[in-house]
Structure formats: structure tokens, C-alpha cells
């Protein structure tokens, strides 16, 4: 028996809109066990886009599908019964959502951006433009860009005529600062090489951190923060961590439903707690 969310998802899929179920808190259901530990051949991220090759839907936005057999299949049968909302992949259908999170952001948009189709949200509005672009969070106060490699909640078709993605929206995304700013520390006594530079030692630490996040059954926010704190405490002061390591940790957190903004905040808070 179809639930209201599944019925809505099937209707969207029939219109070629790739969809997925969301649980409470606007986060996707957890990855399938076959994908833990990178066993599927690669979770999608900015350097490895696209769905993995495991036999099940997973990986948040990359799980979005228009295949009714997948949507109604056994893999998601429980998910739809527990689903709190339906999400879709805007970039997958050539759209960009400007997510305005509060009244001041809506006022800014009305004064700055070309009119387009709008959808009311709990606290603000989604402005939807025709055209895809890279996604980014917090491009200004209360404004996120949702397009490629992210999902957005389906809140209805909205009102107004959709217009082409303007340059004013594209220009909102600038070069992001590096998520890692290692603080150099003195070399160990005796002038030897820092033990963290041993590739096996560092790789084991990052792999364990990814696994800890992937296996979080609840309290994902807290688990991500504690894991970031542990990694930075062990490796953050000796110059061992690179952007690639941070991207792996961020990807693991986002695969559990964390947003890029939450990842950045957790990373910054962990650094601040350590005085870095």
C-alpha cells in the first residue's frame, strides 16, 4: 500500500524528477551496509561524482531516482513507511534552488534577483531557476544554493513563471576557503620525523573516523563533531592533514545526511575547541 510520500514520489518520478525519501530532520535514510568502508567502489563527492555501483540506492542525493521499481522495491519499503518528506535532486533535472532561510533573505532576494517560480518553506522560500550550477551553502546570511550533488525537499510546484538562471545567482559562489588549516607544531625530540606522517598511521586514523561516522545509529551531529575533534586532536597540529583527508570526512558525514554547512561548522568548532 502506497504512503502519501511514496505516491508523491512516484508522481514526480513519472515526470522525470529524481526523488528519494527523507526521514525526520530533513536527512536521508542511512547508506546500505554494502557501501561502508568504500566497498562499493567510491562514495560520490566533488572529486568522484555520480552514484556508486552497489546494487542498492544510497548516498543521499545520488540515491535520487525516477525508476518506479526502485522506489517501490524492498530496499525502500520500510523507508517510505517512516519517511517524513520527499526530496529531489535539482541539478539532475537542470534546476537551481536558491534556498532563502528567513524573512531577511527573502527581502534581499526580492530586491536583488530576477523574479522566478517560488515555493514557500517553513521559514522562508525556495526560488527555482532553470539551469544547473555547483551547489554551495551560506553564500550569504540565510542563503544556500541547491543544484548539483545535493537534494532539496519537495514542497510543491510553487507559483510564478520559472526563469533562466541569472548571472547574479552564479556570482554568489566564490572560491571557498580550505577546510583545513593545519597549525605547525615543533618536530619531535631528537629531530625525528613526526609519526603522523607515516602513511599507514594516518590512513588508519582517517578510515576509522569514516567508519565511526558511517556506523552512527543516532546523534549524527554529535558523532560527527566528536570524530572531527578526535582527528584534529591527533593529526591537526603536525601538518599531516590535507584537504583530501578533510573531504573524505566531510563526504562520510554528508552520506549520513549532514549538510555541507553542518560539516564546516563542526570542523570549525572542533578547531576552536582545540585552540587551533
What order do the helices and strands come in, and which of them pair?
Layout: H1 4-14, E1 19-23, E2 27-28, H2 68-71, H3 77-82, E3 85-88, E4 95-100, H4 103-112, E5 117-120, E6 125-130, E7 136-140, E8 143-146, E9 152-153, H5 167-170, H6 199-214, H7 220-235, H8 243-255, H9 260-273
Antiparallel strand pairs: 1-2, 1-3, 3-9, 4-6, 4-8, 5-6, 7-8
Helix pairs in contact: 6-7, 6-8, 7-9
Features:
276 residues, alpha+beta, 5-stranded antiparallel β-sheet, 4-stranded antiparallel β-sheet, 9 helices, globular
Task: Write a brief caption for the model.
This protein is an alpha+beta fold.
Biggest sheet statistics: 5 strands, antiparallel
- Rg for CA atoms: 20 Å
- Roughly what is the average pLDDT, rounded to an integer? 80
Unreliable runs, pLDDT <50, ≥5 residues?
43-49, 175-193
End-to-end Cα distance, whole Å, is 53 Å
Helical fraction equals: 25-40%
Count of extended strands? 9
Broad structural category: alpha+beta
Shape: globular
Per DSSP, what share of the residues sits in E-state strands of 2 or more residues?
Answer: 5-15%
The oligomeric state of the chains shown is single chain
DSSP helical segment count:
9
What string gives the helices and strands in order? HEEHHEEHEEEEEHHHHH
For the largest beta sheet, what order do the strands appear in spatially? 5-6-4-8-7
Amino acid at each position: 500500500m502506497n504512503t502519501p510520500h511514496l505516491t508523491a514520489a512516484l508522481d514526480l518520478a513519472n515526470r522525470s524528477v529524481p526523488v528519494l525519501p527523507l526521514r525526520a530532520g530533513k536527512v536521508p535514510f542511512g547508506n546500505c551496509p554494502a557501501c561502508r568502508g568504500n566497498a562499493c567502489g567510491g562514495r560520490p563527492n566533488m572529486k568522484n561524482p555520480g552514484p556508486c555501483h552497489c546494487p542498492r540506492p544510497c548516498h543521499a542525493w545520488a540515491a535520487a531516482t525516477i525508476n518506479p521499481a526502485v522506489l517501490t522495491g524492498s530496499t525502500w519499503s520500510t523507508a517510505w513507511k517512516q519517511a517524513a518528506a520527499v526530496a529531489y535532486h535539482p541539478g539532475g533535472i537542470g534546476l537551481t534552488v536558491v534556498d532563502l532561510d528567513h524573512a531577511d533573505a527573502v527581502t534581499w532576494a526580492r530586491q536583488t534577483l530576477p523574479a522566478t517560480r517560488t515555493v514557500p518553506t517553513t521559514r522562508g522560500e525556495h526560488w527555482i531557476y532553470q539551469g544547473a550550477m555547483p551547489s554551495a551553502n551560506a553564500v550569504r546570511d540565510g542563503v544556500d544554493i541547491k543544484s548539483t550533488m545535493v537534494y532539496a525537499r519537495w514542497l510543491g510546484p510553487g507559483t510564478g513563471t520559472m526563469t533562466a538562471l541569472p548571472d547574479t545567482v552564479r556570482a554568489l559562489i566564490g572560491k571557498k576557503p580550505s577546510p583545513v588549516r593545519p597549525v605547525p607544531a615543533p618536530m619531535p625530540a631528537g629531530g625525528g620525523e613526526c609519526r603522523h606522517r607515516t602513511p599507514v598511521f594516518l590512513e588508519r586514523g582517517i578510515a576509522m573516523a569514516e567508519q565511526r561516522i558511517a556506523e552512527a545509529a543516532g546523534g549524527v551531529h554529535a558523532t560527527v563533531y566528536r570524530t572531527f575533534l578526535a582527528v584534529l586532536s591527533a593529526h591537526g597540529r603536525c601538518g599531516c592533514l590535507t584537504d583530501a583527508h578533510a573531504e573524505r570526512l566531510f563526504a562520510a558525514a554528508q552520506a549520513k545526511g549532514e549538510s555541507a554547512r553542518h560539516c564546516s561548522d563542526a570542523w570549525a568548532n572542533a578547531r576552536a575547541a582545540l585552540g587551533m
